[in-house]
Amino acid sequence: MSKLTDVPKRILIGRALRSDRLGETLLPKRIALPVFASDPLSSVAYAPGEVLLVLSIAGVSAYHFSPWIAVAVVVLMFTVVASYRQNVHAYPSGGGDYEVANTNLGPRAGLTVASALLVDYVLTVAVSISSGVENLGSAIPFVVEHKVFSAIAVIVLLTVMNLRGVRESGKLFAIPTYVFVAGVFIMIAWGAFQTLVLGDTMKAPTADFEIKPEHQGLAGFALVFLLLRAFSSGCAALTGVEAISNGVPAFRKPKSRNAATTLALMGGLAVTMFCGIIALAMASGVKMAEQPATDLIRDGQAVGADYVQNPVISQVAAAVFGQGTFFFVVLAAATALVLFLAANTAYNGFPLLGSILAQDRYLPRQLHTRGDRLAFSNGIVLLAGAAMLLVGIYEADSTKLIQLYIVGVFVSFTLSQTGMVRHWNRHLRTERDPAVRRRMVRSRAINAFGATFTGLVLVVVLATKFTHGAWVALLGMVMFYGVMSAIRKHYDRVAAEISAPDEPGDETARPSRVHSIVLVSKVHRPTLRAVGYAKLMRSDKLEALSVNVDPAETKALRAEWERRGINVPLKILDSPYREITRPVIEYVKSIRRENPRDAVSVIIPEYVVGHWYEHLLHNQSALRLKGRLLFTPGVMVTSVPYQLQSSEAAKRRAKKRSEWNAPGAVRRGPVDQRHHHKERAQQGAKD
Amino acid sequence: MSKLTDVPKRILIGRALRSDRLGETLLPKRIALPVFASDPLSSVAYAPGEVLLVLSIAGVSAYHFSPWIAVAVVVLMFTVVASYRQNVHAYPSGGGDYEVANTNLGPRAGLTVASALLVDYVLTVAVSISSGVENLGSAIPFVVEHKVFSAIAVIVLLTVMNLRGVRESGKLFAIPTYVFVAGVFIMIAWGAFQTLVLGDTMKAPTADFEIKPEHQGLAGFALVFLLLRAFSSGCAALTGVEAISNGVPAFRKPKSRNAATTLALMGGLAVTMFCGIIALAMASGVKMAEQPATDLIRDGQAVGADYVQNPVISQVAAAVFGQGTFFFVVLAAATALVLFLAANTAYNGFPLLGSILAQDRYLPRQLHTRGDRLAFSNGIVLLAGAAMLLVGIYEADSTKLIQLYIVGVFVSFTLSQTGMVRHWNRHLRTERDPAVRRRMVRSRAINAFGATFTGLVLVVVLATKFTHGAWVALLGMVMFYGVMSAIRKHYDRVAAEISAPDEPGDETARPSRVHSIVLVSKVHRPTLRAVGYAKLMRSDKLEALSVNVDPAETKALRAEWERRGINVPLKILDSPYREITRPVIEYVKSIRRENPRDAVSVIIPEYVVGHWYEHLLHNQSALRLKGRLLFTPGVMVTSVPYQLQSSEAAKRRAKKRSEWNAPGAVRRGPVDQRHHHKERAQQGAKD
């Protein structure tokens, strides 16, 4: 099977790299940009539309406010980009918002950011895929007619790809992202040329529609509130900006500077595209309504429930290139693909954050291990399940989902920037070099402004979106926070319980002698091997033990034992009720009762088989006995495996599993570098 | 929780017996009769109705054949009872049909009987509960209006009771069974008195109905076929007769004679009740139709789909006692209760047969252990699932389910009786005492007649019922047969693979030295205990091993190791990709490569926690590592458990599990006796 799927995989994403060569795959800026920017750049596919949607509530006249809202979004984008450029320089380890908040504001702030980010990853998948389906649907109507089904199909596809460990490559991201960016720029340029130079009037498919305002003639506070809500929606364009700050180690040297440059480049591209699309939408007369079925009027009549409201970007493309033309279809496909790639970044980020949280004991420790397929699988399945749930509940409607989206982003923006202010404060306390101090003060000012601005936006988002769905995101955050606190508490309690006492001579750890028992049911190779191994261990006392559940079998066992002259005494326990576990446990306890300082070593021969159904047929008594023995103090339990021929299949499967590639490797950069940087950063933080 | 449920349990079924006192609970005949006869006696609640149903196809005039069919059923019942009295004497071990067929006709016949019995148990549950719900419904219409739901609710209730291990007691069976038997006899006597002495005309609720025959004026072969089909349906009265032959060890001494007497008593009661109910049905003018909705005519009109056709026994009770009277309700309740008890016997028989089959390696070996809750649970859940499936598919319609029922019974009757003929033949070859020989020849004649008669009935049942549903039962048997053969084949293959070679000096079993490795992640109590135990084992080489997934932690570990002066060398493995399993496996392999005759002992400290969710938080790396190590040749894996405080809860749960009572204990009799008898029987068979 592997052979068959390898060929298309290689064609798609290039020859897989051996993991020890991972260190060589550092990203040049031209590849880093698409790798990290697919999420923020793709948001321009839905953010402009959301602004128009909200404004339409006050009627089409409110569309005139859209340039001002665009300006506000641009200012915010510049603020956030400038702030994160400071993060990138201060935390070249790729710490990310969680680490920044955790280090500078304490564990509660860190956990809050982590909860916000986890919710955010789920929403990135749900929103990006829903929007991708809507964009694809403007070219292929079938997709949008079966919207929920299509969205879930894409989630399943991404999940399977990531579970199988398809190794990403920079190229996979580069081609659609550059096609998308180029397409949007060509569209903007060609639209501007047509309007300004040729003087043509572009007409969007909805140019002749009218909008029935839900609230005619809004003014005063109500209008301000509506504009703030439109601004909140436009802030969707900022989602994903923080991704680069996690990925500094993946950049070529000078890492921090390259990352900062890429960040600036990304911000510049995003705002240009955002503003360009809004401008074209205004010029071509795009009409969008929150309730299109009743509020969009065509020829004096509401368009009705059958009407599909296409995304702004596709309406603009229809106006500029013409509906269904080659350019139109290419742009729609590239838009959808970039949105799906954006969703894929959450598949990388979610388990990565999980592994960092596991390191801090907020999540099960085994998630910490990098490249551990099982750990990643759990994260991926959890993410996909939650995203599918949301897609199902909100019927893959990106507009509804976006109401939930922005809270988490701005929680982490605000806390991260506040943390950065503290970071500079701490460093300024010790730093004496005036040039460095000047730079730090400047950075602190930028971060302080960023924290204030994003904090304000958070308040605005909460105020305007809470009843529209933001409460769901908050609830999700509270749940993550609660579970992670509980896990941490459990680990702390266990750590206190098992911490080694300082004075030596702890009785429980130092029994005086070992009494070994080999469990025997028949004389066969596994038994002989277990007896052989047990003899090698030279314990103080060694005996073989069998439970008499069938007198005839026991008699045969005893005869065979003597015939072979096995020089280990064979003890038979009676079991009138044909139990195995209880007599053994009682015997072990009786040994401990007689010699409380003895340790008992129970040695169990085990078959190793290859298939799960074979497992059902073997070792069940042994497994249950082992389970019970673990609760008996002063006992150690040894399995002596005997590999049956069929176990080869299972061995191959296990090996294949261990060669699995964890997703997100490219974005994360090589591990040793990461570790190196992190240690430096931690040392820096401790200064 | 245990405390709360114990009180009603004690009230219901008496104080639970300690299992070592089980030997004292031998059954007197007056208790043995209800314990074993609830299944065959309860069948008179549906068998007479099935006869009338089939006859109604030829119109109400065909009802006149019903006494002849009753006679045929009575003759068959006497034959079967007489035959099984021979089994009871020949196999006082309670061998049952499987053992008789297996011993005398070979493993294929045995497996066929076993498959038939397993299918039969499933159908006993489905049929008895469906019929019980119908009977209860004649008093409480709600139940029959929600028939499938009620039937499934009863199955769930029985399943939960049996999973929890409610200990049956003879009294539990005695009261409803005797109430039922007494009720039916009072009904027959009172009905006869009314009709014969008082000269009243009893009228069943359906007395004035007419039946539209599906085939008017059947004659010749078609009529014979219909009568045979009616006879086949009447044979449902024989299901469960073989139960006593499994339960001889549970009787008081003289066991075999008491069992034989009980068997005769049961046969006598069953045929009297069967004939009495048919006679009352004739006298009171009961009308039943296979398709009541269209074929039952009331006042010239079909009764329609809303009509609920009550069972014969309840229609007769309505005629004799009057609908809704005290006696009517008591009889309906007792009938339903006896039918539910009959279903419960399958819950005991199914896992018991499973444990015997497991002993012969047709089912996973762990099912063999008596009183093993897990093994019984699997059997109970399988049984309940299959029965629920059938109830769902056949809409809890006892008439439809009975079409499937009788095949299995007669397969095992026929093979068992044929086996008995062989049994006597073999004994006659060596027996010299003329008195004993005479008895044996008589027994052989009875069994030969029984085999011929039941074989004929089997052919009749197959011919008349195959297309009506018997094929489903056959398919079920084939499936059980196939799975059990495959399991046996697997065990045989493994046994051949692991059988110990006769010449000593097998290299694989005798490594020369042991290299022990204690896995260490931190210095805490579990680690210290593991190191302490490892030292006691005095292996040839001992070292502690840690995987460096985090340089800072590793540094701290090394410092602590030195500070404490632990005199075991600490080896650190590098793991640039933060894996744990792979470096350890490779290291173990490298040891084996350098010294192929060394065995490697890997010692893993483990926490023992109390709750499943705590399990998720601990030992996962250890578990996975153990899983992989089992596939590595020349390795033994030792767990050194460290019991955390929370493990107490799990220990209590495990202890409670081990004190669980397996269902069916009363019917089976005490084990040691059983074993004793069985050995004698086997020795007898070997003579």
UniProtKB/TrEMBL annotation, chains A, B:
Q: What GO molecular function annotation could you give as one example from this UniProt entry? A: DNA binding
Q: What is the lineage of its organism?
A: Bacteria, Bacillati, Actinomycetota, Actinomycetes, Kitasatosporales
Pfam families in the cross-refs: AA_permease_2 (PF13520)
Q: Where in the cell is it found?
A: Membrane
| Membrane-traversing stretches | 65-84, 105-128, 148-166, 178-198, 218-241, 262-283, 326-353, 374-396, 402-424, 445-463, 469-487
Which organism's genome codes for this protein? Answer: Streptomyces solincola
Q: Which domain of life is it from?
A: Bacteria
Keywords on record:
DNA-binding, Membrane, Transmembrane, Transmembrane helix
Any Gene Ontology CC annotation:
membrane
How does the UniProt record describe the way this protein sits in the membrane? Multi-pass membrane protein
Q: What is this protein called?
A: DNA-binding protein
The answer to whether UniProt assigns keyword Cytoplasm to this entry is: no
Residue span of region Disordered: 647-687
